């Protein structure tokens, strides 16, 4: 069977991040004896840099190839330039695809508001099965950019985009999603379509190997940790969808109370400069900004941490974040603001403490609770490790492949 994955976003094998969903799916397809091509943009979303000047084919293996599709640049994530980028990617995909025999199944990553028209048209003309893989919720995310007094306009302004997503879902032969919440939303639009949840997951074998690397942090400048200290880690994007300003204010509160808590911030994004300026300007020495760490170093750092932060704004569309799987694998009790899949799991399995998004006092108190109650912290650590195996990519992606095989063979 030949499967195409059409997703302009994601880090490629060898780019330094953990394996992206498209890569994990392609490897699972390859192991099952199938051929996989991932059509991805030549412009990289995180770095805002071009990977190539034109179309390029990269052989990851004999059965897994990456096709880099020419696209345009954008500097802001929510912008007209990004819409142009997606439309250009989709048009070029269709044009370039004519040189190849059509696949049996095409997996289109959603959000696909500005790529779906061209990609669906190709799938219909090629006669291949179409699977929609829901990774995030657009246009829900766009509501975050509206000033609070105008938030009521969101459903009106974005109504055409909601209709566009519903149309895409109705074209699908199968729907998969990275969370139950996302899948339920999709099946409301296409109730007769077969669907399943395949979480992003984590490769536990790789994770535990990196924990055993005693030299991984040799060149990372870390603060001194005493037995009285708890290290609390935030690892992820430093952007508007995340409760970064509340995190900073909570650090101020914790410093005033002379609580022995050290916040470690790992990541990159639009709010990085704000964070570093606050640390320097206010001498906020209970926050250490470590920049971007390769995945092996980040995993090794988790071993030395006590608590993890899952801090998102109140209107966040995130349901089961990547960092959730890190917390599970590392056994790190979490201070969390999300509801949906992750919030429900944290509450049901006693994996951490909830705080109210946007409330610095609530965040500081939640951190302090886990810092002071070592017995609670240990119990949560044990609960996390027991849950981790449910989310191992070694199980998730072979099951994803079986779903695709069943769609291709009309067995669903």
TrEMBL record:
<protein>
    <submittedName>
        <fullName>Glycosyltransferase involved in cell wall bisynthesis</fullName>
    </submittedName>
</protein>
<dbReference type="InterPro" id="IPR050194">
    <property type="entry name" value="Glycosyltransferase_grp1"/>
</dbReference>
<keyword id="KW-0808">Transferase</keyword>
<dbReference type="Pfam" id="PF13692">
    <property type="entry name" value="Glyco_trans_1_4"/>
</dbReference>
<dbReference type="GO" id="GO:0016758">
    <property type="term" value="F:hexosyltransferase activity"/>
</dbReference>
